């Protein structure tokens, strides 16, 4: 394996591009919407301690990740099938990474004509 420093190859790399993809709220399933509503209600309940509020916020973040999975997968498959550009996928929630991996493993047999690589980076809080 050849290892090079970022400072040595930075001039050869294209400019970084960030994209924010907005998906329609109508794509969220009824089950996910109910779960989000319950988490939001718990988060805004008066009388909760700071610890309970933080736990409710973390639960809400996890529920939003689960709600986005179908749209994220659809977007990645569209990028993959277009074959026009290379891309990397980074995700914070392990459940999202697992769902992407599961779908791509199923699709790989039908996408043999495309060269692709899935790079999954999962950082735990201890690695920061």
From TrEMBL:
PANTHER family documented for this protein: DNA ANNEALING HELICASE AND ENDONUCLEASE ZRANB3 FAMILY MEMBER (PTHR45766), SWI_SNF-RELATED MATRIX-ASSOCIATED ACTIN-DEPENDENT REGULATOR OF CHROMATIN SUBFAMILY A-LIKE PROTEIN 1 (PTHR45766:SF6)
GO terms of biological process kind: DNA repair; replication fork processing
Organism: Rousettus aegyptiacus
GO MF annotations, alphabetized: hydrolase activity
Keywords attached to this entry: Hydrolase
Highest taxon, organism lineage: Eukaryota
Name by which UniProt lists this protein: SWI/SNF related, matrix associated, actin dependent regulator of chromatin, subfamily a like 1
UniProt entry tagged with the keyword Hydrolase: yes
GO cellular component, one term: nuclear replication fork
UniProt entry tagged with the keyword Hydrolase: yes
